[in-house]
Structure formats: C-alpha cells, structure tokens
Design goal:
Layout: E1 9-10, E2 18-19, E3 40-44, E4 49-50, E5 53-59, E6 65-70, E7 78-83, E8 88-93, E9 99-104, E10 110-114, E11 122-127, E12 132-137, E13 139-140, E14 143-144, E15 151-153, E16 159-163, E17 178-182, E18 188-192, E19 198-203, E20 209-215, E21 235-241, E22 253-257, E23 264-269, E24 275-279, E25 286-290, E26 296-301, E27 317-322, E28 330-335, E29 338-343, H1 354-359, H2 364-383, E30 405-408, H3 412-424, E31 427-431, E32 437-442
Antiparallel strand pairs: 1-4, 2-3, 3-29, 5-6, 6-7, 7-8, 9-10, 10-11, 11-12, 13-14, 15-16, 16-17, 17-18, 19-20, 20-21, 21-22, 23-24, 24-25, 25-26, 27-28, 28-29, 30-32, 31-32
Length: 457
C-alpha cells in the first residue's frame, strides 16, 4: 500500500473533530452518500518520523479504529488507536514492525501485515490487552515473504493477504508477488499469482469473490531521490471467483482499469456488496465506490486535482474501513498522514452477521464459535457482565451469567438452522414473528442475574 508518490518530512500538529476540505467538490452517488456530507479530520501525524503515510484502518470490537503510521527507513512505525467516543488518538505501539494493513478477527485479536524496509515481513497477531506480538507466518515454502501488505479474514478465520514489495533493500526470496491464505492450523496456501503486484484486497459479503488491486509501480524499492520515475505496470481491480474451499475456481475479471494513472491502494466492502477503492491518482483524489460489475456508484473526494509531476501530493487516500455499532455507517479513510471519516447511507460489511454466516460455506463448529463469541463479548462489554467460553469447538461452552442477545435474521429458514445450533450451546432461541427480532437466552435464565439486550445488525 506504499507508493512512489509520498510526502517528505512530515511533522504536523494533531487536529481532532474538525470539518475539513470544505472546498472540495461534493460527493456523488446519493444512494451511498449525501451530497452535503463532509469529511471530518480526526488525526494528523505529530510524531517526528520521516515520510510514509497512514494506512490500514480497521475497527476493533469496541468500535475504536486502529491504523498504521508507516515511515521510511529506520523509523519503526506505529499502530495508532482512535476512540470515537473521546475523539482522541493514542499510540497502541511505537514499534509496529512496519505494519501496513490491519484486521481484527472474531476473537478480538489484531492481525497486522508487516512490510519490508526494515519491517517484520510477516503476518503477526497482537493481543490488544497485553500488547504482546506473535508472528503467525513469515514464510511460504521455506522462503521469506516479500512484504505483506493488506489482509482480510473470512468466515472460517482464515487470513487472506497480499505480498507485493514496494520498499527496502532486503533480498527477495520468492519468485512471485502473490496472494496467500493462512489457515487456522498455520498452513500457508497460495491463492493466486495471476497479478503483477497485489495490493489491497477484500472478500465479498458471501465470501464467493476475492477483490484485488493490482498496483504495479514498476519498482521494488521506492527512492524519493530518484531522478527518473519508474515505468508503471498494471493498475487494475480484479474479481476472482472462489469455490467452497476458498480457492480460485474460475477466470478473473477486470472490473476497473486505471490505465496510465496510479491505481488502487486499500479497499473495503459494504453490506450491499459495493467495493470502496482508494486510487492514488492525482487527477482525481478520492474514494471510488463501484458495484460488483465495476460500475461507479459513488465518489467521495479527498483532495484537489494536481499535476502528475507534483512532488508532495496532498489529499491522496490509502485505505478505508467502516466503523462498528452505532458507527457502522461511518467510513474511515486514511489520507496522506491523517485519518478522516464521513457518514454514509449504507453500513459496512457485517463480518460477523448471522445471516451472512448461514449463507457462507462454513462448518457448523466455526459458525458457533464466531457467532457466540461475538454476541457474548458485545453484551458483556455493554452490560458489565463477565463471560467465559470454554473449549475450542464450543461443545461445552458456558456463560457465567445470563445473556439476552437480540438481532434480526433475514429469513425464517436461517432461524431454524440457528435454533438447532444454539440448542447444542445450552442457549434458547425465541423468534418474535411480528418484529422479526430473535431472542437468544441462556437455558438457565431464571437462575442468573445479569442480562443485556443489544442489536447485532
């Protein structure tokens, strides 16, 4: 997600909660974003580190936004945390191992793609409470990764990630710049190398399509002092069909071709399946929203048009993510060395949605693990009631206090399937036919004191 178009030394002040870029054109695509919606500036780098950009925003279970602040060279890089409640940004770690793309899994663990240029060149996992880091994978077939860049986690807790290379002097060991997947047992599987330089990626809400940005900037080592620009390669957005095993099972389709301009960096998807792209083009900086066929449905400007030879471009987006809970319709955007957000009319992809889980080709045990953990964790946080889950496959899962979880299912058959699963968890499901609300309670509800009710969709 790092490009040859970068800023130099950036030592800026922190700005919080202010509207910004009011002079920009209005957003387009009224089904996605209101024409009078404004970008809100939340954070601008103040640390004395050189170059680079902010990247990889992702929403934590508590709704806070974690993102990477990536420098050049020997500076270690940081992972930052923005709190939507206080609008304050704090340092989660001052040594990110050059983290780039970030993503939380169903268990609240933070996964990071660590790049090259003195970075970790690995996919790591962070315990948010203890701030301890564990390397999940750093090799494929015994050879070190190039520079893991962006990641996405599917319904089976498998981690898809891209492995291009844009920076650093480290020796490349792998022949291809590819997309890989880390399975739950630690096995690394190549998904595709039918791409010149894979960058941002996302899975469709039904997990049947892999969207991938091909961003070939023409060099493995960005040199800010170079007298000649590298020759750009493919700048495209692809859609790869995936089978029930999560592997590519058909020819790729090109959804967008940016031609001779810099292409897309990071991306995300919403509930409706729209794809949110962050092209690095200077002629039209902003977030491009397309449908699954590649048709433009919205555009959110983040900067003014600039000449292609601009030395220090401004307003160039690098990645996007949606908030959680009450902020599920809030789009967070990393731009230059800052973080912005803007309200939309749609909500983000429901990574832990019950209905999506039932539509996805997943095993019952994995569904139960992710559904129960998410539901109980959110209720526990909002109610202050402690919880405990025992057993890796949840066959003997237990909750220390009563939990009442309300959510809507999209269809009645899904309710019947869920009911059978919950029976094994010592939980009881009741469907209100009038409101469509599903109530999930402990089988021993009468004996327990604590309870809470929250929406999960």
């Amino acid at each position: 997600m790092r490009r040859w178009l970068v800023c130099g030394l950036c030592v800026l002040g922190l700005v919080r909660g202010s509207s910004a870029k009011a002079e920009l054109p209005k957003p387009t695509g009224e089904t996605i974003v209101a024409p009078d919606a404004k970008l809100e500036l939340l954070f601008t780098r103040s640390a004395p580190i050189k170059g680079g950009l902010t990247e990889g925003p992702t929403a934590a279970p508590d709704g806070s936004i974690f993102f990477s602040d990536i420098p050049f060279g020997s500076d270690k890089g940081m992972i930052m945390r923005f709190d939507p409640q206080t609008k304050k940004t704090t340092v989660f770690t001052d040594n990110s191992y050059k983290s780039n793309g970030l993503k939380f899994d169903a268990h609240g663990r933070l996964f990071a793609c660590e790049g090259s240029d003195e970075g970790g060149r690995a996919v790591s996992r962070w315990d948010v409470k203890t701030k301890s880091r564990t390397v999940v994978a750093d090799k494929y077939m015994g050879k070190r990764f190039n520079a893991p860049n962006d990641c996405w986690i599917d319904a089976k807790s498998r981690i898809y990630f891209s492995d291009p290379r844009y920076l650093g002097t480290e020796t490349r060991e792998l022949e291809h710049r590819a997309v890989y997947r880390i399975d739950t047992d630690g096995t690394v599987v190549e998904i595709t190398h039918e791409v010149e330089k894979p960058n941002g990626l996302a899975l469709s809400p039904d997990f049947k399509t892999l969207y991938l940005a091909d961003h070939n900037n023409g060099t493995d080592r960005i040199d800010p002092n170079a007298t000649e620009k590298p020759v750009l390669g493919a700048m495209k957005i692809y859609a790869f069909p995936l089978g029930e095993d999560g592997l590519v099972n058909g020819p790729r389709k090109t959804l967008v071709d940016f031609g001779a301009e810099p292409g897309c960096d990071g991306m995300t998807v919403d509930q409706m399946g729209h794809i949110y792209l962050t092209p690095r083009r200077l002629s039209k900086p902003g977030v491009l929203v397309i449908d699954p066929t590649g048709k433009e449905v919205a555009f959110i400007p983040t900067g003014e048009a600039q000449p292609a030879d601009t030395k220090a471009p401004k307003g160039i987006p690098s990645n996007v993510t949606f908030g959680k809970g009450n902020e599920a319709n809030m789009l967070y955007i990393t731009v230059d060395v800052s973080l912005y957000r803007i309200p939309l009319k749609v909500k983000g992809e429901r990574l832990f949605s019950v209905a999506d889980r039932l539509r996805a080709p997943i095993e019952v045990v994995e569904f139960r693990r992710q559904m129960l953990y998410r539901a109980v964790a959110e209720v526990s946080e909002k109610s202050g009631v402690p919880f405990k889950i025992e057993g890796n496959d949840l066959k003997n899962a237990g909750v220390t206090q009563t939990m009442v979880v309300n959510f809507k299912l999209e269809n009645a058959p899904a309710t019947l399937v869920l009911d059978r699963m919950l029976t094994r968890l010592d939980l009881v499901l009741h469907l209100d036919d009038v409101t469509g609300i599903v109530h999930v309670t402990s089988a021993n509800a009468a004996k327990n004191r604590g309870w809470a009710t929250i929406p999960l969709n």
